[in-house]
Amino acid sequence: MAPLPIKFTEQLQLNAVGVQQQSIGFNSCTLESDNFVCIRQQAEGSAQPEVLIVNLKNGNNVMRRPIKADSAIMHWNKEIIALKAGGKTLQIFDLAQKSKIKSTTMTEDVVFWKWFSETSLGLVTDTSVYHWNIFDPAQVSPQKMFERNQNLSGCQIINYRVDDDEQWMVVVGISQQQGRVVGSMQLYSKARGISQSIEGHAASFGKIRLEDAPADSKLFTFANRTQTGAKLHIVEVDHQSPNPVFQKKAVDIYFPAEATNDFPVSMQVSQKYKVIYLVTKYGFIHLYDLETGTTIFMNRISSDTIFTTASDSEGSGIVGVNRKGQVLSVSVDETTIIPYLLQNPENGELAYKLASRAGLPGADNLYQQRFDQLLTMGDYQNAAKTAANSPQGFLRTPQTIERFKSVPQQQGQLSVILQYFGMLLDKGKLNQHETLELARPVLQQNRKHLLEKWMKEGKLGCSEQLGDLVRIHDVALAQQIYQEAGASQKVIAAMAESGNFDQILPYSQSVGYTPDFNSLIQHVTRVNPEKGAEFATNIAREDPSLIDIDRTVDIFQSQGMVQQATAFLLDVLSANKPEQGHLQTRLLEMNLMNAPQVADAILGNEMFSHYDRQRVAQLCENSGLMTRALEHYEDPASIKRCIVQTDKIPEEFLINYFGRLTVELGLECLDEMMKVNIRQNLQAVINIAKKYSDLFGPTRIIDLLEKYRTAEGLYFYLGGIVNITEDKDVTYKYIEAATRMGQLNEVERICRESNSYDPERVKNFLKEQQLTEQLPLIIVCDRFNFIHDLVLYLYKNQQFKSIEVYVQRVNPTRTPAVIGGLLDVDCDENIIKGLLNSVSPQSIPIDELVGEVESRNRLKLLLPFLEATLAAGNQQQAVYNALAKIYIDSNNNPEKFLQENDMYDTLQVGKYCEKRDPNLAFIAYSKGQNDLELINITSENSMFRAQGRYLLERADPEIWSYVLSENNIHRRSLVDQVVSTAVPQSQDPEKVSIAVKAFIDADMPVELIELLEKIILEPSTFSDNANLQNLLMLTAAKSDRGRVANYIQSLDNYTPEDIAQQCIDVGMYEEAFLIYKKASQHQEATGVLVDHVVSIDRAQEYADQVDLPEVWSRVAKAQLDGVRVSDAIESYLRAQDPSNYPEVIEVAAHSGKDEDLIKFLRMARKTLREAPIDTALAFCYARTNQLPELEEFLRGTNVAN
Predict the structure, then answer these.
(1) Repeat CHCR: residue ranges (predicted)?
(2) Quick one: average pLDDT of 751-756?
């Protein structure tokens, strides 16, 4: 049996890697390429669904992710997964980077989706088809391509294909119709924007290069099975001239007789072999030639349905998954397919073309025979074509070339050998021998441009021999050929020859070839110095070991190329390695001798640290680079020799340089600078001293400056630190220096702003200086409260003007202390008054002024000033306080001032009056409602009447509570005055009520009764006040019952109901009876006698007195309850009240009082017609044997039972 023309392999059994059988199906298992299988499943016993990704190219490694989705498809070759949830939500994730790439929400459900390229997804919804490029940031959401045709309505979409140019698309769907599965397709052209409905089950796109065609033809192939048969169709789309037209193919698809329900499910086109793979539902595979449609092979590869397939990544075969979980791969077997086809003579031509097209073995003899036959026949063109198309180029040999070269050239025609080479160039790349044979005649004909063209197109087989041949004509082209051929030495020689020095090093590195770079550098430098330096730098930068750096520098210096040598060394030494120290020194020496500014820049960049610092320092000093010399010298003598030349050293550097020196060396250098040239160097010394004042210490700097007696130096140095120092001596020295320099404004500023000086010391210094301007002294004394000393000093020296300046301009608020000082030295009052008048009253703290003057018992002195101040509109409270005190002391009608003026401080003035006149204090306190102070002063002076009146007017419950507290030893005295005077004299009911409530809250019933009797029983505004009368009686009922009866008789405006009830509550029944009786509330009075006094006889007597029906009814009920039946009936008769007839009938009948009952019932029948009444009357007549009355009753109208 001949071997099969295919390779058939089971790559994997999905069940073996943990995939559940129920998860292996079209909806849950997807295959987009031969790299990944993606399965959605939910493991048994797990609540979390998961996605399994099997990597077919990595040992079938399984990646599990806890993902819940409706669909999941993997990218062709990247770890990128596309997920669909809820039908509309699409998300793309990069699993390797653990990041989301894109997401979107569609407006309608996606029913099918597929990767149709390495960048894009195809999405099919119920109405439309979309494309979504997931790597294009500009395409945020899918782009609509076209709308679905009606022929797909109701179909299950099973595939979507797009050609390589994305110009043609096809949607494939299936549906159940009349017991069979019908395939429907929609073919769409993007360029034309139109669709075509086609009946078919599977489809794909492919390309093929027809014989003698300049370009590929685009083909659309699809398969369909109908009720009458099955066909495979291959048609051309987008025909391009001048390609020959591809003839449509329609070939039968064979299905076994038993496979009546079988139909195509997928189709893939192998771009490598130009073979169509067709898979059916029942697991059959068909192979067809794409160009002719010829059947190559058919067999069954699976007994289970293959529900998904994809092309392999090499474009040679297909991979698929069946229901059983097998991952199967099928591809052409290159070693057997040609022999398999040659078994059938009809397939000879197919075998011939397929072997040429895919370079397959097995047809060599066929080609060799045809080639020899064509040469013999003289058909050289077809012979050349046969050799050019021979499988794996086995006929493309030097012998073939020689045979073509030996063919004579026909007149006016292209030689056979050149025709042959033309065919080879059209087909692809020439081998090295072919290229050499072609290049010779081309160069002889001076057509070098053809070689350049073919070189760019990659069609020449390059060799060293070809390069040597071309080098005579074009070095650059030869260089390219040498590079392609790998002739490194000749490549570098060509680069050097053409001046492409910058290409030498990169090329050497890329190919791993190491030439003699030092010789190359010397050669390049002679030709082009700039290129030589650049070349050397590039070599050293990449690998310094390739060249001798010292030798390279010698090359540059030998030709006087200092600049180039500098550039080279700067680059080479950039790593600043210790072993390069001698080269660093050489670089700096070279430039210090030839270009000091360059050396200065190099040193300024601080690139190097391993050179000979002493040698460089000497060269810097010789070159006049003092800053660099100082940076490098370390011995004090050299440093001091350079540092005094301040005219050659920038000030900023000089100042910063001192920060590097020790304290001792720094001070020595400053001393040296002052000693050598104080005029030139003083300013620099001052600036340095300011900068490093903390480091050197102000004391030592001051000593240094004083050593050279430079007051100017002291002033400017100390001026730089005085604002930040906390050293009192420094500040004092600055004040001294500024005074000697005549800088009194600066002295004044420091005295005002600084907190770091000894005020006593400065004050004494300023006094000793006898300055013409006393403002600094005034400021010191003002700040540190030396006012008394200041006033004495200025008064003693007759500097009244300075005193005025002080209180007028410096600090008017110190006026009180100044006035006090002047009073202490017995200054003339007119001077003091004049001084006061010269200061704005608004600026003077009146309280302090009054205090100063008052403490010296000279308060009257201020009267004119205060009155003038008041007249000027000054409304300060202190003014009024002072005037009040003066009026009090002078007894100038103080009562009127205190009563009428509202501006003074009542508390302060009241305190002032307490020892002088308590009555004035009372006026002040009462005006200011200073309650506690008023209570204290009136209590201490037994002014209880005034206190009582104040409290009544104040009407403040808290104050009342305070004075009525048990802790108040004066409470009784106060209460006496309140009761006897304050309350009786008051006309305000609300204030009296507050006072009464205060007595109640203080739980003082006896005192409350006294108060109430005073205002109620004695004639007053409140005598008829009902609330107060109620309060009096209630209070007496609780605390003094003996008074209640008298109150009942003497008072008339109380509320009898409330008071009587209160008496009842406390057991005062007789008083309650009297209240009701006086109020003519007879029924309530009777109730008291009956219910509380429990005297029915007294109640009956009371009823006789008032003779009221309701009273008789109340008495009758009590008598009935006491089983005094006859009396009760008699009372009911007097009341004419039959309402209680049920109880009366029951009790009287039970007591045998029929005669009395007959009287009651007759009275009752006058107003009531009730059956119980008539029935009881009948029984009473019967029991008393009053038969005539009974008969008369019965004959009359009645309701007896």
Answers:
(1) 540-686, 689-831, 837-976, 983-1128, 1132-1201
(2) 88
Place of tokens 């685009």: 218
896, 900, 903, 906 alpha-carbon torsion, rounded to 10° = 60
Contact 1004, 964 (CB under 8 A): yes
In words, the CATH class of domain 1138-1201 is mainly alpha
E runs forming strands in 75-193: 80-85, 89-94, 99-105, 110-115, 120-125, 128-133, 143-147, 156-162, 168-177, 180-189
C-beta atoms surrounding 913 within 10 Å: 23
User: Which tens digit of pLDDT belongs to each residue from 796-850?
Assistant: 888 888 888 888 888 888 888 888 888 888 888 888 888 888 887 777 888 888 8
Average pLDDT over residues 643-662: 88
Average pLDDT over residues 916-931: 87
Rounded CA separation 225/227 (Å): 7
Q: From 754, 792, 747, 791, select the one nearest 773 (Cα to Cα).
A: 747
d(CA 1079, CA 1056): 7
Q: Are 234 and 256 in contact (CB under 8 A)?
A: no
**Residues with Cβ within 8 Å of residue 1083, at least 6 apart in sequence:** 1108, 1110, 1111, 1114
pLDDT for the residue numbered 1175: 84
The two domains 345-401+415-502 and 1138-1201 share their CATH topology (first three levels equal)? yes
Extract the tokens encoding 502.
Answer: 């910058």
Confidence of residue 680 (pLDDT cuts 50, 70, 90): confident
Cβ neighbours around 1034 below 10 Å, total: 19
CATH class of 345-401+415-502: mainly alpha
pTM score above 0.70: no
Residue 688 to residue 221: CA distance in whole angstroms: 93
User: Residue 1092 contacts by C-beta under 8 Å, 6 or more apart in sequence?
Assistant: 1064, 1069, 1072
825, 831 contact by CB (below 8 A): no
Gap between the Cα atoms of 1007 and 972, Å rounded:
9
Residue 742 — pLDDT band, cuts 50, 70, 90?
Answer: confident
